[in-house]
Specification:
single chain, 316 residues, mainly alpha, Na+/H+ antiporter like fold, 78% helix
Length: 316
């Protein structure tokens, strides 16, 4: 892994993020645009990118060679959840903060941040591994973490089994599964369609970074009032999580490329869904938003350091 290429990729994305913050300050990028563009990339550009990558890279050879190592993200995410839950109980967090703390501590933004950064650093070959981490992150979040966030709200929300299934089988995951089936069944895909999917999927990275810039600018100085427990969760999210993931990868003998992808994913900021669910169930969405913004701000400085460290542990 070239340190120069990694830094160039990360800083290029950060420059677009700063542009998003500038556009927000100038009132050009507004909340309405933010919600529209978030839905746009989650429902259309990311699914297009994943479908095209699946038909290119998912083969029986890939599955047989990588089947067991793809368990590493599940071990990492489940282990992170259990550790975060144990700490939350140990320090006796109130229910209004418990679910938010666990989510920020253990769950990461594999979509808006993870995909574009890994694409810039590792290229398209990283997408199947990013998807594996996304699946693990999504399953643990909606099955274990989301109910705790809902329980911390004043309306006593309960997330049904049907809602969990709907959230897990989101458009990005479904598109990747369909693309994998098309590839494994050797169903021909016209060249013009693949080109269109590639071009459409390429919109993901710049739009995602503009949205991250919006989040940074919209919080402003409010991020300085973040509760201590949430600051601790952010520190764990950005510093402890990639180290923990690296340890899991070493124990499971994961090869260098997927190990680096998993660890970079583990260092991503907190999930946007944490804020959304907190607001939906009338929980402490202000603390959730502060944690989200703080993790995004600090990730700008942490991710390059993680890349440098990975180059020593998993040289490629």
């Amino acid at each position: 892994m070239s340190i120069a290429n990694a830094f160039n990729g990360v800083f290029a994305l950060m420059l677009i993020m700063l542009l998003g913050a500038f556009m927000t300050r100038r009132k050009f990028l507004t909340e309405d645009y933010y919600h529209f563009l978030t839905s746009f990339i989650m429902k259309y550009t990311i699914p297009a990118m994943l479908f095209e990558n699946a038909i290119e890279n998912v083969t029986m050879e890939f599955i047989t060679e990588n089947g067991t190592l793809l368990l590493a993200p599940f071990v990492t995410q489940l282990g992170g959840y259990l550790i975060a839950l144990g700490i939350a109980k140990l320090i006796k967090l109130p229910k209004s903060l418990e679910g938010i703390f666990i989510s920020i501590f253990a769950m990461c933004n594999t979509m808006l941040m993870g995909f574009p950064i890994c694409m810039q650093i590792f290229g398209e070959v990283s997408v199947p591994y990013v998807t594996a981490y996304y699946i693990a992150n999504t399953l643990v979040f909606w099955i274990l973490v989301a109910p705790r966030i809902a329980a911390g709200g004043t309306v006593g929300g309960v997330i049904t089994r049907a809602e969990k299934i709907k959230r897990v089988f989101s458009p990005p995951l479904l598109s990747f599964l369909v693309g994998a089936a098309v590839s494994l069944l050797h169903i021909p895909v016209p060249a013009f369609l693949q080109t269109a999917l590639t071009d459409f999927g390429a919109l993901t990275s710049p739009i995602a970074m503009l949205l991250c810039g919006y989040l940074l600018a919209s919080m402003g100085k409010d991020v300085l009032k973040t509760p201590r427990c949430i600051v601790g969760a952010v520190a764990a999210r950005l510093l402890w999580a990639p180290v923990f993931c690296a340890g899991i990868c070493l124990l499971m003998n994961v090869p260098a490329l997927p190990a680096c992808v998993f660890c970079v994913q583990a260092a991503m900021p907190a999930m946007n869904q944490t804020v959304i669910l907190s607001g939906l169930y009338r929980g402490n969405d202000r603390a959730a938003a502060q944690g989200l913004a703080l993790s995004n701000i600090l990730s700008v400085f942490i991710i390059p350091l993680v890349v440098m460290g990975l180059n020593q542990v998993f040289p490629m």
